[in-house]
Amino acid sequence: MQGAGKALHELLVSAQRRGCLTAGVYESAKLMNVDPDNVAFCVLATDEEDEGDIALQIHFTLIQAFCCENDIDIVRVNDVAKLETIVGPGEESGEPRDLHCILITTSSEDGWKDQALEKLNSFCEERRSVNDWVPTITLPE
User: Fold this and answer.
1) How many Å apart are CA 134 and CA 101, to the nearest integer?
2) Least confident among 7-11, 34-38, 48-52, 82-86
3) Which of 2, 44, 95, 129 has the CA that lies 20 to 30 A from 137?
4) CATH number of the domain to which 48 belongs
5) What is the pTM of this model?
6) Is residue 86 part of a domain?
7) Total structural domains in the chain?
8) Bridge-partner residues for 39, per DSSP?
9) Is residue 139 part of a domain?
């Protein structure tokens, strides 16, 4: 489990650098609708106060269904603050951005292969073999 957290951290940093990271529930849903073939990985994140947000939980259910239908690996993270330290705040506005859903994209012609993504794909495959379809990952400190 610790190795998966480290791999997720590496993947987020790498994807951010390459411009292959989409953050936000709305932005992610738009991307999945327009270009689902290039979505390689999905991260759903909540904090304790988000657990009672019914609208967010409905969005998560729809995103999870889409990911399962399109063979996109998906994990949960229970610490939005740690995610923000990894991917940073919003662009120019300086406002905190929505990190409840993060998509990692690749393009077929790019040929980008990320070892962290491969580790996470293997981790998700292992978890599915024990009926854990959306495993929770703890990010390293």
Assistant:
1) 13
2) 48-52
3) 95
4) 3.30.1330.30
5) 0.91
6) yes
7) 1
8) 105
9) no
- In terms of phi and psi (left: phi > 0; alpha: psi -120 to 50; beta: otherwise), the region of 88 is left
Q: How far apart are CA 25 and CA 63, in angstroms?
A: 9
Share of the chain above pLDDT 90, in %: 68
pLDDT tens for each residue of 12-41: 999 998 889 999 999 999 999 998 889 999
Q: Is the dihedral of CA 18, 138, 65, 114 positive or negative?
A: positive
24: left (phi over 0), alpha (psi -120 to 50) or beta: left
Determine the structural domain holding residue 26 and report its residue range. Answer: 3-132
Using DSSP bridges, classify how beta strands 39-45 and 73-77 pair: parallel, antiparallel or unpaired. parallel
Q: What whole-number distance in Å separates Cα of residue 125 and Cα of residue 112?
A: 21
Closest CA to 90 of 20, 26, 23: 23
Whether 141 maps to a domain, the answer reads no
Strand 136-137, strand 21-23: pairing: unpaired
Q: How many residues does the chain have?
A: 141
The residue type found at 56 is L
